[in-house]
Amino acid sequence: MTRIACVGAGLVGSAWAFVFARGGCDVAIYDARGEAARDQTQALLERTTRMTGADPALIDRVRFVDTLAEALDGAVHVQESIKEDVAVKRGVFREMDALAGPETVLASSTSAIMGSSFLDIPGAARALVAHPVNPPSLIPLVELCPTPSTAPETVARTRGLMEGLGMKPVELTREIDGFLLNRLQYTLVAEAMHLVGEGYCSAADIDRVLTDGLALRWSTLGPFAVAHLNAAGGFADFVAHLGGMMRQMGQSARTDYDWTQEMVDRIHDDISAGIPVEKLSAWQAWRDENILETRRVQAMADDRRP
User: Fold this and answer.
1) Share of the chain above pLDDT 90, in %
2) Averaged over 18-39, what is the pLDDT?
3) 26-53 average pLDDT score
4) Which residue, of 142, 171, 200, is where some domain finishes?
5) Domain residues for 110?
6) Theoretical Cys-Cys bridge with 231: which of 47, 162, 175, 238, CB 3.0 to 4.6 Å?
7) Helix axes 280-303, 35-52, angle to 10 degrees
8) d(Cα 34, Cα 80) in Å, to the nearest integer?
């Protein structure tokens, strides 16, 4: 079987282990936290297997090892999912570069840090960012972002692996902070905080605009396709009619809004009234069930495409 190493077994690393094992890979996990990480990963694997109806035997393809060298032994791909700290990541990748076989791809799950800031290793040609959406066990998108030193073959191999696992990769042609998903997500959240902070609406109203409005279209169509369908002549017609308004709103948007801690606390309290922090795990399970249901709807929508 294809041998994979997962370095770091937090929520993202454990979910990656499920993805690789579900795809038939032999997965070795290394996490410096030891038993605590093992217990968390085992619980996540069991819950996700039940939830998705996956073959329970996949859990047997995941094993914990005691050293980084054991994890990388024979691996064709390494997926790092450790702390979002440049210095820590650089140290781990330098160690992995020395331990891994010459053909092993070294990939990072970093959610926003440009790879070139820590993938400056002797084997930089075989290293890249492969950023998933949490949890990758349920959400198929993965962003592949090379550094200026990444070899095209590394991107191609990683894309092939991800597609074989049932993931849906997108490729960036060059680096940018936050890649694609988080640049869009953080921009929307920042403008949402501007609207709440200036008293235009409540945090709950913002969430409803998404769940009962935009998300109903965005679950099966992206924003460009939505605009294309919202004008008689397609996207060019949409921009011709509404481009001026888009530019005006873009100038008045406050994605650099200077929110205060008091405002953050207020939004936190408002959201926590409906989703108590002490019940986050139950709400996360509810979220995951909804992700699966939405993916089933997406699959049916794909089957009905004209």
Assistant:
1) 96
2) 93
3) 92
4) 171
5) 3-171
6) 238
7) 40
8) 16
* pLDDT computed for residue 36 by the predictor: 82
Q: Does the residue 288 lie in any domain?
A: no
Q: What is the dihedral of CA 104, 109, 115, 120, to 10 degrees?
A: -40
At 99, is the pLDDT very low, low, confident or very high (cuts 50, 70, 90)? very high
Chain mean position to CA 150 = 21
> Do 153 and 267 fall within a single domain?
no
* Structure tokens that stand for 293 in this block: 């249901």
Q: In what order do the strands lie in the sheet with 3-7?
A: 62-64, 26-30, 3-7, 77-80, 105-108, 127-132, 141-146, 168-171
Residue 106: which CATH number? Answer: 3.40.50.720
User: 42 and 140: one domain?
Assistant: yes
Instruction: Look at residue 208 and tell me if it is in a domain.
Output: yes
0.70 exceeded by pTM: yes
Considering the domain architecture, whether residues 142 and 209 belong to the same structural domain is answered as no
Bridging pattern class, strands 105-108 and 168-171: unpaired
- Which tokens sit at 288? 């995951």
